[in-house]
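This part of the workshop introduces the protein records we will be handling. Backbone structure tokens are a discrete shorthand for how the chain folds in space. Once this layout is familiar, the rest of the handout is easier to follow. The record below serves as our worked example for the rest of this section.
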Amino acid sequence: MFWQEDNHKTSFQIPDDIVDVLFSLICKRLPVDHAYALSAALQQTAPWIAEDTSGVAVHTVHVAGSQNGWERPGHGTDQYLILSKRTKLTIRVPKQHTAALIKDLAGQTLDVAGCPLTIGPGKIRRLSKTTTLLSRHVASVPDATEEGFLDWAAQALNDQGIRVRKALCGKMTLLTTPSGMLRTRSLMLSDLTPEESVRLQQQGLGPHGKLGCGIFIPHKGIEAVGKTA
């Protein structure tokens, strides 16, 4: 009998040219809709982040879902997330900028929509080769339907050399900005190859990375894809 596997796995080393920097923080609460306020405060403290060539993407601050009698508030700038001591501020950045990022941010206290946020030490973490990824906010074609959003995402990913095998998008979430409300949807992708997974985490999907859009993180499954941060 002749048997040949044409999909055998090869060893894949995760590159470190793009990394996440995780900062400890002291902050009692943040607005649920805090993407713009956080980004603006970071750029005020480290103005070089605003440069298009910086390659910086700012994760929105996320806390666990409703549990132990606490109910997650609705999305809005007048609703607040209660942060724990374990909550982190995560920023995705090219490796060559990590030293400057940690130097400029560690020890600083930011005003995020009236909420004081003190940034602690930063720790570098490589990206993941997990083959299921989630982005809580992806900004795409305005007014796109769910089907239109998925069509746009499939084409944009294909242009990046990423094949869509399984995709699921969540409900629309509006992010507040000075120029108006930014429409976003969550997007889960599964059955990626490790190489595709890392490439997507490095490149992101769509615009507004500094507002937390198009940033992909490891995800266990599809159950919570419709939930927002």
